[in-house]
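Protocol step 6 of 9: fold each sequence in the batch and record its structure tokens directly after the sequence line. For illustration, a two-sequence batch is reproduced in full.

Sequence one:
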Amino acid sequence: MAEFDNSYARLPERFYTRIAPEPVPAPEIVLRNDALAASLGVADWGAEVFAGNAVPGGATPLAQAYAGHQFGGWSPQLGDGRAVLLGEVATEAGRFDIHLKGAGPTPYSRGGDGRAWIGPVLREFLVSEFMHAAGVPTTRALAAVRTGMTVRRERDYPGAVLTRVAASHIRVGTFQYFTARGDTEAVEILADHVRARHFPEAEGVCGLYRAMIAAQARLIARWMGLGFVHGVMNTDNMAVSGETIDYGPCAFIDGYSPAACYSSIDRFGRYAYEQQPTIAHWNLAQLGSCLVPLAERELGSEAAAVAALTQELEAFPDLYQAQWIAVFGAKLGIAEPGHEDVALVQDLLGLMARDGADFTNTFRGLVDGSARDWMLDREAFDAWQARWERRRSAEAAAAMAQANPAVIPRNHRIEEAIAASLEGDDGKARRLARVLLRPFDLAGDDRDLAVPPREEERVTRTFCGT
């Protein structure tokens, strides 16, 4: 049985609002993560808990307060407008938040209905579990349930709730919420809480900031290695733990373009694929500004605090670059990738962009020898391959197979699964969930899921669930 130890609920009351999830009329499980449920000690939970109709013993439901920069514009109060944190489950592997997304309105809903519909819930379940299987730090999906309610967006949709699991749900925007109110005491309490929960070895304010910066550098590099476009990298959607959070209008690149942008609300490409490291750096700068008063206490002056935090922030590009070449070096089977390999990777990406080559299949093709088939300018690829062969490790094939997934949650396949689910057929969603749990090992019967979309199947716009 799960043991709740709700450390966030022990923080001052201005950090959250206690509120229970609103019951729904007819909860029905669509997808359930049995392995994750067992590891958390919640294998006995059913649809009633996952929908919010029953609150497990020891849970302390609450909605967290936070603020954020959304597409660069400042919003001083956001918060959990359609989600409720049940509490934290303590396990041998650590503590994990269990969070109901779509659980009804809260004081932070800003006029919204607090609900979710089945499409975004299935997308987050499928994509987040794939990301975990592919080795990317991420929130997890425990269950997706229908609610028996109708949710109104551009039309009526069947309502749903996602049960999400995370190391925590503390965001850059959580720090910003208190900084905007001049509440330095709360910023300090939050920093101590984050250190205890995520970075216990970090010393001092600068050490904590350094750890959070390094976590983001690791995360974004792994996104880039999968051709993942988050789509809404607002500061309220950046978890300080270094996990991917809030899979709204996210997507994976099919035909490679560094400017790939799918989000329907990102009209100017602020969060395009190639922009993600820059935006992470910008978001971290906003986090650093929140820590200035704490660093000032340690270092004796505001000028010293700003200089020290700036020095930590300026390390991000090099930290990210080191993580990026490690990720792509592994994809190319280079045993000890270094600065001299950056041009090799960039030249391949350049060829892929020029030809619109499929991102996932080109890299997987380096494993099985089919990469050339995805290129239009095969003579140029042959010249690149000769350079690559000189750098590739002789024993690289097995390692490369574990660095280059054979299957990803392709945008058109997710849309197919959502469309089928709207008609009452959850088979496609369940098949995707099964296959995406083993993305490096694709069985013959499932190879159709690795095929890029035909022109008429291409998904060029993705949408938030609100």
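Sequence two, same batch, same settings:
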Amino acid sequence: MSQEKYIHVVVATGSWDQDDLRYRRHRFAEYLRQKEETEEVIWVCPTPVRNDQRFRKLPNGIMEYQIPDILPPRIFRFGRYLDPFYKNKLNELKIYLNERNTFKHVLWFTFPGFPLLAELTKWNKIVYDCSDLWAAPIGGKQSLVMKWREKSIHSAENRIINESNSIFCTSDFLHETVKKNPFSADKDVHVLENGVEFNNFNESQVTGDHRLTSLPKPVIGFLGGIKPKLDFELVKKLAVTYPDWSIVFIGPDGTNGSEEFKELLKEQNIHWLGKVDPAIVPEYMKAIDIGILPYKESIYNRAVFPLKLFEFLAAGKPVVGMNLPSTIKYQEPGVYIYSDTNDDFISSLTDVASEIGNPLLIEKRIEAAKEKDWKNIFNQLYSRGLDSKL
């Protein structure tokens, strides 16, 4: 008997190569693509650019299906959550899936966009992999526009939760939030935190001419999208307190012109290197002495489980974080330090700086990350998602 084949549709926040960043959803889509029983993976995503060609084949073999926003400016992204603004843009995808009705169809929502997809075809399973408190303002600020946006996202997310067979959350806070939702009353809701490509980050080596090796030590670093959820005033205070330390930001600017970030870059010991190829991010992790997760206090950040925590640890680097309650349970001296105040954050870095190369602590950091390999996490996501009750 021939094996049943699956077409997996992954609903993503943007095009595959947007910002050249790799999130959980990218790694999971590639995991699905490599499964023996997978016929095809389709990456469904919004795009601010109008394109007559909806489908495009990515170099990794995944098919991308683009749904253009009403207009390019960010303010028009509300159309991703309201059916009339995208319904007709799903027609080609519907035809494509219906022509392949001999395969099992699985829908994976990774953000609460395009909820009408749940009615597009007869899905064998619908799964919601929730990684953020999507309706909350990322910078912590609220406005009339943001309140309307919040209402639209809540409505879309409620529909997705209601239609899903199984739901996964990347933090305990998200899990508690989803469990309180009346639409999740009879759903399987699990916590599966973010992980790490362990071997890549553990085994990577730094070349002698690496661009970070010439900076004064210690090199304190943040890698990832630079967004309003970060506390730039805190990092500026750190830069002023320790002018001889090097503080590095590596990643694209997603601050929408933040004046705080612009002011931070005026400090002589702050270095913003821009975005780098995801393939060499492990090398940058190895070149940094201490990783930082300097997040603001906000409702949004209470739900965040940062991708970089276990990546830093797999590279043997200590980490100091703040305003990320989902990570408190992983704190351990010399491994991961969780700070409650700005002063604690800065003093913790002072303590950690004296133990960077301690071989016993390096081993502890690596051990803390070893069990968090993405393959282990995705094996659970896949098996539980497909085995969930209808």
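Proceed to step 7 once all outputs are recorded. Observation for sequence two: Residues 144-163 form the longest helix (20 residues).
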